[in-house]
Amino acid sequence: MAASNQTQTQTLDLEQNEEFDYSKRSQWLRAAVLGANDGLVSTASLMMGVGAVKHAMKVMILTGFAGLVAGACSMAIGEFVSVYSQLDIEYAQMKRDQKRPGAAAAAEDGGGENDKEGLPNPLQAAAASALAFSVGAMVPLLAASFISEYRVRIGAVVAAVSVALVVFGWLGAALGGAPVVRSSARVLIGGWMAMAVTFGLTKLIGSRGL
């Protein structure tokens, strides 16, 4: 009986250890997934918009590359500022908590060190965001780099971006423990809408010679 109880206890402990708090992934997951989606959608939309009035492959590639560099820098700076602001707020909260009664005893038990280890890292978040944006932006760039025919090039960009949107949506949902199909569909439809609106408005303006 004792051996059976011990086995059940070990099984319960193992199951508890296997349970993962997906919220712990929120910081880097948010930066990575949003960065990749932004890089993919914004660069593809930019290339589609320019491609609506300029059919040359070189123009589309240069436009996409400029969007990649500018977007990666913007994402990195924005993420750094955002996370650093969050870090300042949490540090201020920690200082207020240290002034409360019983804070000294908690610090001696190692509670203060654990709190500091859980704080967000601005540089890590900025690097992850810039890298993810660049990875996403490379998809439409590579899809358009080797196709000289305009219509085929546009179709290749749309097809490559669609596949990547589904993959990124599935990856973000799987890592975050969210519904996979719903997340992938939402990301895919959003990307299609962004490309369609950009292409249509640029085509309309370009056709009127503005």
TrEMBL record:
Q: Where in the cell is it found?
A: Vacuole membrane
Keyword Zinc in the entry? The reply is no
Q: Which Pfam families does the UniProt record give?
A: VIT1
Is Transmembrane set as a keyword in this record? yes
Residues in the signal sequence: none
Protein name according to UniProt:
Vacuolar iron transporter
Q: Which family does it belong to?
A: Belongs to the CCC1 family.
Biological source species: Rehmannia glutinosa
Q: What is the role of this chain?
A: Vacuolar Fe(2+) uptake transporter.
